[in-house]
Amino acid sequence: MAKYRRTDSRKKTITKLKEGIQLINAAIVGLGWWGQTLVESVSKNSNKLRFATAVSRSGSDTAKNFSDLHKMNLVQNLGDALGDPNIDAIVLATPHSLHAEEVIATAEAGKHVFCEKPFALIKSEAEEAVAATEKAGVTLGLGYNRRLHPEMIKLRERINSGELGEILHCEANMTFPNALFLSADAWRASKEETPCGGLTPMGVHAIDGMIDLCGEIDEVYCQSFNRAVAVDADDTTSMLFRMKEGMSGYLSTMTATGGGFSFHVFGSKGHVRLEGMTHIAGAPSEERRKKCFGNCYFKPVKGTLKHWQAEETDIVKAVLERFADAVNGTQPFMISASEMIHGVAVTETAVRSAASHKVEKVL
User: Fold this and answer.
1) What is the pTM of this model?
2) For labelling, which of 6, 199, 288, 345 has a CA lying 20 to 30 Å from the CA of 259?
């Protein structure tokens, strides 16, 4: 693992907080299409977090032009950002396999760290990363932005109030066409980086939603294969879950069809279905950030079907600002460290099940 020089930035941030709530100066690591989306979500319209530096290994003209547009200093190595005393936090939009190492390096440098999902691909690495942030006393954030959408918040409240009765089952479907357009040398085309097709780029959002609403997952059965894409990656994946609390779950992901999203919770008093879109590469930034939820339905056991349209919310901006709030100490981040680790354990178990063709326990 690369070693980075620790700076006094953590001390500087803590000193700032004694004087009042401060704008968090962050560095974005990775300027792919999603890294750019993160920057666009807060550019010129957030008083909580701003991106002052961008880290792009390629240093390409595209990266330079984007950095210039958003008034960011462009560097090519994470170490450059970690050594900058003016940077309070690091935001990682890098390949999945690098996350744990980069989180640890960031924590050891005394910087707060926000990691895009999935947090890691192996539970033991997630545990090491969490331990490093706790030892350093820095804030850790994770990019499960859908938790903050008003419709997910309302669904959580319906469940907790008992309005849906005993929860029986939840299921989700997430699709996009992105894998149809991947080049063979793209990191997202690698089975090592994106095992089980749409699981890591999309499905982990739904898994996190199930953990949030229904508690920990006990066992998983997964099947995953390639039907249509030219690269060596799966495009059709489905999973069955059994939660520790007893309810069941189902998730399907496809990376070679039209984009869509649904999340459906069934209870003994009725069911709620949320529909919307996924983050489709090449779509306008505002669409990727604000159109994830659309049609919503509630069907009670007795009574008529209710239908409404979700309010438009920039959930990408929302999760970055929630991270900034946690750094400033005004409210905790909405995902606990134990949930972060458990989510990785479920992902690791799904991959193991796809290989074994058996139901696997989440360890």
Assistant:
1) 0.92
2) 345
